[in-house]
Amino acid sequence: MGIFQPGDVALRREVLWGRPWAVTPTRVVVDEPDLLVLFTVPGTRFGFPEHPWRHGWQASGSTHWRGNGKLQVHRPGDAYSVDVYWEGEDRRFRGWYLNLQDPFRRTPLGIDTLDHELDYWLPVEGGWVDKDRVEFEEQVVAGKYGAEQAESIRAVGRSIEAMVEAGATWWDPDWAKWEPDPSWPVPELPDGWADYPLS
């Protein structure tokens, strides 16, 4: 699979039960063999194809990304991304959001993955808290995740907790200072994105 260039559009497509579930067009920041960094430009519209499991953002009426945008730092094989969050017009760094998800799989259009609901928040002040654990367990009961997959997700959470407690985080803290290229326009979804073959 080819390597994207900085500024290219890459589709972050979520796949649930073998079918596209949601998509976010992103801008590529870094695409190297051991690191993939994507940026969601403020105002980017989400795509939601028909699916038997309704996406939470779709259900809440969220149609596009608000705020300062989101930077997502990935390593191949990791079942989570490290997302960088800022707030306010001065883009004040607020913390790291570890988003549990399927390890990304490359496609000609970008990547396929699946959000796992369970996440971890590492505020700039220090410490950590898990997020949406109750919602995750409710979704397990409802059948979104099978028992084996659910336990695998919990195990990723435990490994994240151990990493943070040991002070062994691997990502470059300078990502907190990163700023997007002001010339990047909001990317748009190409026609037929939901029908493109799965990775």
Overview of this structure, please?
There is one protein chain. With 199 residues, this protein is α+β, with helices and mostly antiparallel strands. It contains three helices and ten strands. The chain has helices at residues 56-60, 133-142, 147-165; strands spanning 9-16, 19-32, 35-40, 70-74, 80-87, 92-101, 105-107, 110-113, 115-123, 129-131. The longest helix has 19 residues, at 147-165. The mean pLDDT is 93. This is DUF402 domain-containing protein.
In short:
This is DUF402 domain-containing protein. It comes from Actinosynnema mirum (strain ATCC 29888 / DSM 43827 / JCM 3225 / NBRC 14064 / NCIMB 13271 / NRRL B-12336 / IMRU 3971 / 101). This protein is of the alpha+beta class and 199 residues long.
Helix-strand layout with pairing:
Elements: E1 9-16, E2 19-32, E3 35-40, H1 56-60, E4 70-74, E5 80-87, E6 92-101, E7 105-107, E8 110-113, E9 115-123, E10 129-131, H2 133-142, H3 147-165
Oligomer: single chain
Low-pLDDT runs of 5+ residues are none
* Topology pattern, helix = H, strand = E: EEEHEEEEEEEHH
What strand order characterises the main sheet? 7-8-1-2-3-4-5-6-9-10
Number of strands: 10
Which structural class fits the helix and strand makeup?
alpha+beta
**CATH homologous superfamily designation of the domain at 25-44 and 59-107 and 115-168:** FomD-like
Domain DUF402: 55-167
Organism: Actinosynnema mirum (strain ATCC 29888 / DSM 43827 / JCM 3225 / NBRC 14064 / NCIMB 13271 / NRRL B-12336 / IMRU 3971 / 101)
InterPro entries: DUF402 (IPR007295), FomD-like_sf (IPR035930), Ntdp-like (IPR050212)
Protein name: DUF402 domain-containing protein
